[in-house]
Amino acid sequence: MLETTIAGSLPKPLWLAKPGVLWAPWALEGEALAVAKLDATMLSVAEQARCGIDIVSDGEQARQHFVHGFLVGVEGVDFNKKKRIGIRNNRYEADCPTVVSELRRTGPVHSAEAKAARAATTNKLKFTLPGPMTIIDTLANEHYRDKVDMAMAFARLLNEEARELEAVGVDVIQFDEPAFNVYMDEAVQWGIDALHVASEGLRSATAVHICYGYGIEANIKWKETLGQSWRQYEQVFPALDRSRIQQVSLECAASKVPLELIGLLKTKTVLVGAIDVASDVVETPEQVAATIHAATKFVDAERIIPCTNCGMAPMARETAYGKLRALADGAALVRKSL
Ligand code: ZN
Predict the structure, then answer these.
(1) How far is the CA of 318 from the centre of ligand 1 (A)?
(2) For the whole model, what pTM was predicted?
(3) CATH number reported for the structural domain that contains residue 148 in this entry
């Protein structure tokens, strides 16, 4: 009970990419880069296990960014034709690639690092993919009729990818949908349907991660506009609870989300974010335990997987791994007390 996991990303080693930067350029190229990505993946898996994390991830070491890492393997996305667009409902601007023709995978995108991660551990393995709604929010569209049409095209590609990851031995496939916290109506209208397409026919566990983002300045400013009580989850969780997705990863640590909202997930396994990724202060195991305990008031401990609030890619490595140790130790404290 209370097996621990992480939301997804971890900082990369210095020899792979510049630390402390999102979208950091690779420090190597060609064959050296390909090998280094796999080395970093194996290292991140070993480090997670050493910290006591039960369900480990590839740490997203082989991708530059959690969305564009998948897009580099998709034909129809023109990375040379970038448009500056406001994403997450204009929270920030980014130079986004353009969809110029029918989308098609040119081959497996993430199989190599999934295989490396699988070979590096006997722990359960989770692999993250960007969700369809979040993908299309990070792209310009010059080909599809509308964004829903484009999202469903991506959902089909994600399904092909997810089936391959499952065949490699991945135990949990997680779709990252921070956009669900921005476009709540659309998440209910078509976002969950798109997740169903992406997860169609999978035997591995399926998860969706919905968060308030990395601890970067644009997100911190956005959170300041959300007031004292963040109720975005309230609009999406009832529909999500009726969906076929089995696990929901959400923020609970140092968050203004009213904790009772997680009680809306009556049938799901809940990945309780007990580590704040927007702060460099490493939690104590007791703080982590208190967050998990608080969550057990609304969700049975049997359905709780202690987790991080979000990814840790922009963090210093020692901070990130210190937080993972606190997560594992805090979960152990709760296990002992139950
Ligand atoms: Zn997140």
Answers:
(1) 20
(2) 0.96
(3) 3.20.20.210
